[in-house]
Design brief:
globular; about 525 residues; 23 helices; mainly alpha
């Protein structure tokens, strides 16, 4: 078994130098630049979030901030009108680029743009209906909540046609371009938020700022698509190709089902908490979910650059290359995700006390439970993307439905006797059973990868990660205090104490040297 495991292990240099047989291969440099841009965007969002969130909470108050979080939870469900077409456009465009089929790529883009534009128009109508429902059935904060939902809903409707150019750029691995748009919008949004709050404005002004901050970026991404892909010409825009549309819809429907289940898993908690305990406790719960979402976004930003690689490899029939990419992404996710989860659990209480104050200290236990639950998602992120790349999206939809149903039922059952902790446990318990025990076997069967080998590699990475966290644990015991200098010192020393042994024992120094040469070149 040991010899089989060694045969499955892949060095960092091997995956980063994977080349796709097209005119524009996904090279090490492209992956490195794209990954760096995504990490930069996430780091900026993290800094902005950590600075702005407590400022917003104290300026708006717990009730108004809870209203803001609830409005965004409502609007979060709007993405379901996507019908799974974003994933369909991304995957099929990656396949077309991998096969070098420019004509098919042009058809996918124009058909996707037409579909998203129509869906955006429908979303405006849906938004008006929801606002009317809020005015009728949520009298306590009806007017303000309805206006916020209206503004954010219109912004989302405008964003729908932009899913096509964003999807095409990401499908080609141009994460540096899409990340630039996201960074620009984040800076504009943060600046506007501070200005309107200093002027004494409320959540309505925040919603307007959020909408306006995206406009410059949208203009840029449209230009970038036509600059990068010359085969997409203006005369082909909004051209509807029925066979392509049918192909996208067949792919998209199972994706939509999976997205609905994801929304129930990840975004229903705030609604359950507000139903049982009111808006004030939504703010407490939202502190924990915000930190956990940063955790998920951070790791997926790093390993997400492999997503178009997986689809391009399938498009070029490089099945073995796809399997190697899957294994590498899994190992990186386990090591990186393990360190961040350790940080949330070990440093989370001190950070919350310093960040938003002792009155929100009850969010720490929720943070621990959710961090453990989401770790199972992160460790298998690359494997799930491999399912999409190999057209097994129906399989993942079934997995998601099962977990979402269990999540909602357990959360509702435990919310009354155990409070917010019961809602969080409703997320953790199904995650352990389905993500940790059932999903790996299903995925490996569908992708024709030995589950024994997959578990052997994964467990080795988990073991190495656990051993390498021993020194950071002792560092934290002696340096951690609830103030920013101590938190940054603890985090920095822990990262240094973790990353070098992980690099040596998990990815080996020989691979590290070759990777350094590739990046330098």
């Amino acid at each position: 078994m040991a010899s089989e495991k060694v045969a499955d292990e892949v060095e960092v240099e091997e995956i980063l130098t994977t080349r796709i047989p097209t005119s524009k291969p996904v090279s090490a440099r492209k992956l490195a630049v794209g990954g760096s841009a995504r990490v930069l965007h996430l780091a900026l969002l993290t800094v902005i979030g950590f600075v702005i969130s407590p400022y917003m909470i104290h300026k708006l108050g717990a009730e108004q901030y809870g209203l803001w979080a609830l409005a965004n939870a409502f609007v979060g469900y709007y993405s379901l009108l996507d019908l799974g077409l974003s994933g369909a456009v991304f995957t099929h465009m990656s396949h077309a680029l991998g096969a070098g089929d420019n004509e098919e790529g042009s058809r996918i883009y124009s058909t996707g743009l037409s579909a998203f534009s129509a869906l955006g128009a429908i979303l405006v109508v849906v938004t008006l209906v929801i606002c009317a429902g809020i005015l009728l059935f949520h009298p306590a904060h009806a007017t303000v909540l309805a206006i916020v939902v209206l503004v954010v809903g219109i912004q989302t409707a405008i964003a729908f046609p932009m899913r096509a150019p964003f999807g095409v750029l990401n499908a080609g691995g141009h994460f540096e371009m899409t990340s630039f748009v996201l960074i620009l919008s984040a800076v504009l949004r943060a600046t506007g938020t501070v200005l309107v709050l200093r002027a004494g404005q409320g959540v309505v002004a925040l919603a307007i700022v959020n909408m306006l901050s995206w406009i410059p970026g949208y203009l840029w991404v449209c230009f970038a698509v036509h600059w990068q892909y010359k085969f997409i010409v203006p005369r082909s825009l909004f051209h509807w190709h029925k066979p392509t549309a049918n192909k996208l819809i067949r792919f998209g429907v199972p994706v939509l089902v999976g997205q609905i289940a994801d929304r129930i898993r990840l975004q229903s908690d705030a609604i359950v908490v507000s139903f049982f305990y009111g808006l004030r406790y939504v703010t407490h719960y939202n502190i924990a979910t915000t930190l956990v979402m940063y955790y998920m976004d951070g790791i997926t930003a790093i390993i997400g650059v492999l997503t178009p690689v997986l689809s391009m490899q399938m498009g070029s029939r490089d099945v073995e290359g796809m399997k190697r990419s899957l294994m590498m992404g899994t190992r990186i996710a386990i090591c990186g995700g393990g360190f961040v989860a350790f940080g949330l659990i070990c440093w989370g209480r001190a950070f919350i006390l310093r960040w938003v104050g002792a009155e929100y200290g009850d969010a720490y236990l929720i943070l621990v439970v959710l961090a453990v639950a989401m770790s199972f998602d992160i460790w298998q992120y690359t494997a799930v993307n491999a399912l999409y790349a190999s057209m097994h999206q129906k399989t993942y939809a079934r997995i998601n439905i099962s977990e979402a149903a269990a999540n909602l039922v357990i959360s509702l059952a435990l919310a009354k006797p155990y409070g917010m902790l019961g809602v969080a446990l409703g997320t953790l318990i199904p995650s352990i059973v389905i993500r940790g025990m059932i999903q790996p076997w299903i995925i490996q069967k569908k992708l024709d990868i030995s589950a024994v080998k997959f578990y052997a590699v994964s467990l080795r990475s988990l073991g190495v990660t656990a051993v390498c966290l021993v020194v950071p644990f002792f560092i934290s015991r002696y340096t951690l205090r609830p103030d920013y200098p101590a938190l940054f010192l603890t985090g920095g020393l822990s990262l240094l104490a973790f990353i070098f042994p992980v690099w040596k024992f998990e990815f080996n120094l020989a691979g590290a040297e070759r990777l350094k040469k590739l990046i330098a070149r």
